[in-house]
TrEMBL record:
A single GO cellular-component term on record: membrane
One Gene Ontology term of the molecular function aspect: phosphorelay sensor kinase activity
Domain Response regulatory, chain residue ranges per copy: 640-756
Coiled coil: 343-384
Keyword hit for Transmembrane helix: yes
Catalytic reactions on record: ATP + protein L-histidine = ADP + protein N-phospho-L-histidine
Keywords: Coiled coil, Membrane, Phosphoprotein, Transmembrane, Transmembrane helix
E.C. no: 2.7.13.3
Name listed for the protein in its UniProt record: histidine kinase
Primary location group: membrane
Species assigned in the record: Methylobacterium planeticum
Every Histidine kinase domain range: 393-617
Length: 761
């Protein structure tokens, strides 16, 4: 047995050497192949990114041109330079649409009107207008507008697009199809300096009447011009294509088959890049009626160099360690015989110990799996409990409110059929009261979901707290001492003041309820700069905030109650004494305003609720909270209000209120019809519109389009919840206001009179 063991060990070293070299070679081959595959996939991924980016940007620019065409179609080719420039500035052209040299408009007119059109161009705001060059074409299309007004774009004013066959082909394709059409590779008229690039145009046709006619013949007859975008190919592709993708795959874009005459753009590359390119790809794009060819070739990036270094490292390292292991094995062979008998006696003990460890490991693994299963079950249970609590609370409260409304209406109907009108007012009051409570409940739910309609204003929180102090003292009662600690030089914040007042009053009421035997409430403000670590702990963005904290000396809250305190319908108060929506409403309101709400409490030590509100860089408004509203005048003769809402019941209600106030009401059901009225000569003194509308535009977009021709038009938005389309930089523009559904008829009438009264001063 011992001799056989000695002979067997002699083969260990050669086997290790041979096996190690074989494994090293196999690993090197596998790693090399995986590196090749990874490089190939990286290259294909980069090419897909570049292709999708080009297509996506072309769609974006087409949508931009379609919007401009809509402006000219709506005004029937009477847009002035000032209006068009206002449109370009409003869409933030230079910042939102990189790579576009300019956007402009070119009318289509008979050649005999060349001279007379120059006079019309002067009236539209374009001085010294001249159509060039002279041609014998029956029609001309001179560039009338080109924005933004830089030297390059100004060089194109008056240029007859139909004088060039390539540009003429683009115009005729756009005119006959009604779609955006791209030109072939051209030298732009705007190329006035030495830094010249290949370029192309994209035209969007404009038809009289706005809509695209159904047949090519009608399109030619109603064609009045086109809105165009001018592109310098080098600037465009250098701007829109991500640098990371271009690092892995260089590309060249051709208008048609690849050649020097059709090259639009080529990525910057090393002179030897083509020779060293390992992968290539050819792709075709159909953009604006033109077939573009895109050729890709891989680049030698730092990532690929590191991959090849890994291959060589594995190969050399594997060989080195294989040789070392072989030498160690030869030396160990001599020692193996000496320890053989010792190992024989230890094998049984090792096997027994291994069996015990395996059994213990299996038990630990099973316990871990069981714990993970229980934790997952608990999480699902908590989720279902929260959903059930929310839906159950909603169903309970709304069923109670609906029962009051339905019962009151049924009794009103019964009494009226019987001719008994004495109790009708009582039942009507009950139904209206239930309706107001339902509106208050939806308001709280919208606050929790962060979708309520807010009217943020620059606010001095110290001044707001001082204005609320007397109300808070009367609300909490004489047993509670109120102490206000206002920080000097407190930063202003952009917030909805009435909502913040409501949140502060709710916190003080909760503090009062936590101290049934009396106590002390401290209302404190402070400036706070939250660093990155503090922001992570508080689950908020780092930055400058002001804090509004309410501290009580009550019973405090345990950790499990703090964890659920902001959940909707969660309350620790007895049944009937709280809805459980107060703190959730405060949390939703603060989060919607860009801040955070946090609770700090220990049982028996009281509680502190802090609202963190973002600092506003401007100055707070000098507003007096709680001022009364002066009497407002009724309608003057001929005053007209346009009502736009897709809900017929709401339109009827608003129209009836306007009629009672003496106003003339015009009702439409969609944004397209509303904009048509607003762009007509009909007198409109006020626009009342919903935000979510059919017709291709929402209420805010329709109002913005209307204000191009009616810049001082007052607008009242009526909406069921806050919509992002309403706000610009967090605020409404001057002359705009919001009224949240549902609303009282008196409130609607007062708001309408107030907005129209301001227009008379």
């Amino acid at each position: 047995m011992s001799a056989q063991r000695v002979r067997a060990t002699r083969w260990i070293s050669p086997v290790i050497l041979f096996g190690g070299l074989l494994a090293t070679g196999g690993s090197t081959v596998v790693l090399w192949q995986s590196t090749q595959l990874r490089d190939r996939l990286t290259f294909l991924h980069a090419t897909e990114i570049e292709l999708r980016t080009i297509e996506s940007q072309f769609r974006t620019y087409t949508a931009l041109l379609r919007g401009g065409a809509g402006l000219f179609a709506a005004k029937n080719d009477t847009v002035s330079l000032t209006e068009f420039r206002s449109f370009v500035e409003r869409i933030e052209f230079q910042s939102r649409y990189p790579g576009v040299l300019g956007i402009g408009f070119t009318p289509n007119l008979p050649a005999v009107e060349r001279e007379s059109f120059a006079v019309r161009a002067e009236a539209l705001g374009v001085p010294n207008f001249r159509v060039r060059p002279e041609t014998s074409n029956a029609t001309v299309s001179p560039v009338l507008f080109a924005e933004p007004p830089n030297p390059r774009n100004q060089a194109a004013i008056g240029y007859d697009v139909m004088s060039d066959p390539v540009r003429q082909d683009m115009v005729e394709r756009a005119r006959d199809t009604g779609l955006a059409a791209a030109s072939a590779r051209i030298h732009l008229v705007q190329e006035i300096d030495r830094n010249k690039q290949a370029g192309f145009l994209v035209a969007m046709p404009v038809y009289a009447g706005g809509a695209v006619p159904p047949t090519p013949e009608e399109r030619r007859n109603r064609f009045i011009g086109f809105v165009f975008g001018a592109f310098r190919a080098g600037d465009l592709f250098g701007t829109i294509v991500a640098a990371e993708a271009e690092e892995d795959a260089a590309f060249a874009v051709y208008d048609g088959e690849p050649s020097a005459a059709t090259l639009l753009h080529r990525s910057k590359r090393d002179p030897q890049a083509a020779a060293s390119a390992r992968y290539t790809r050819r792709a075709n794009l159909e953009l604006g009626g033109r077939a573009w060819t895109v050729l890709f070739e891989s680049r030698a990036s730092s990532r690929r160099a590191s991959s090849f270094s890994e291959v060589w490292l594995v190969c050399i390292g594997g060989m080195f360690f294989t040789i070392i292991l072989s030498l160690i094995a030869r030396r160990q062979r001599r020692m193996q015989d000496e320890v053989y008998y010792l190992n024989a006696s230890l094998e049984a003990r090792v096997e027994e110990r291994t069996r015990d460890l395996r059994l213990a490991n299996d038990q630990i693994r099973q316990a871990g799996e069981e714990r993970a299963r229980i934790e997952e079950t608990l999480r699902q249970s908590q989720k279902m409990e929260a959903v059930g609590q929310l839906t159950g609370g909603l169903a309970h409260d709304f069923n109670n409110l609906l029962a009051g409304i339905s019962g009151s209406l049924e009794l009103m109907q019964s009494r009226m059929q019987q001719g008994r009108f004495n109790d009708v007012d009582r039942y009507m009051s009950a139904a209206q009261g239930a309706t107001k409570r339902a509106a208050a409940l939806t308001h709280r739910l919208l606050a929790f979901s962060r979708r309520q309609t807010l009217d943020p204003k620059p606010t001095d929180v110290n001044r707001l707290v001082a204005g609320m102090e007397e109300l808070i003292r009367r609300t909490v009662g004489p047993n509670i001492a109120i102490e206000v600690v206002g920080a000097p030089n407190l930063w202003p914040t952009l917030i909805d003041p009435p909502q913040l007042e409501n949140a502060l009053l709710n916190l003080c009421i909760n503090a009062r309820d936590a101290m049934p035997e009396g106590g002390r409430v401290v209302i404190e403000t402070a400036n706070r700069s939250i660093d990155r670590q503090g922001a992570l702990r508080q689950d908020m963005a780092a930055g400058e905030y002001l804090s509004l904290c309410v501290t009580d000396t009550g019973m405090g809250m345990p950790r499990d109650v703090i964890a659920k305190a902001f959940d909707p319908f969660f309350t620790t108060k007895p049944t009937g004494q709280g809805t459980g929506l107060g703190l959730s409403m405060i949390y939703g309101f603060v989060k919607q305003s860009g801040g955070q709400a946090r609770i700090h409490s220990e049982v028996g030590q009281g509680s502190t609720v802090c609202l963190y509100l973002p600092r506003y860089s401007g100055k707070a408004e000098a507003e007096t909270f709680g001022t009364t509203r002066a009497a407002l005048p009724l309608a003057q003769a001929g005053e007209t209000v346009l009502v736009v809402d897709d809900e017929s019941t709401v339109r009827m209600l608003v129209a009836d209120v306007l009629a009672e106030l003496g106003y003339t009401a015009i009702e439409v059901a969609d944004s397209a019809s509303g904009l048509k009225v607003l762009q007509s000569d009909v007198r409109i003194d006020l626009l009342v519109t919903d935000v979510g509308l059919p017709g291709g535009m929402n209420g805010r977009q329709m109002a913005d389009a209307a204000r191009i021709g009616r810049p001082s038009l007052p607008v009242l938005f009526i909406t069921g919840y806050a919509e992002n389309a309403l706000l610009t930089n967090g605020q409404l523009e001057p002359g705009m206001a919001v009224l949240t559904k549902p609303f009282a008829v008196d409130t609607l009438g007062a708001r309408i009179r107030e907005m129209l009264a301001h227009t008379h001063h």
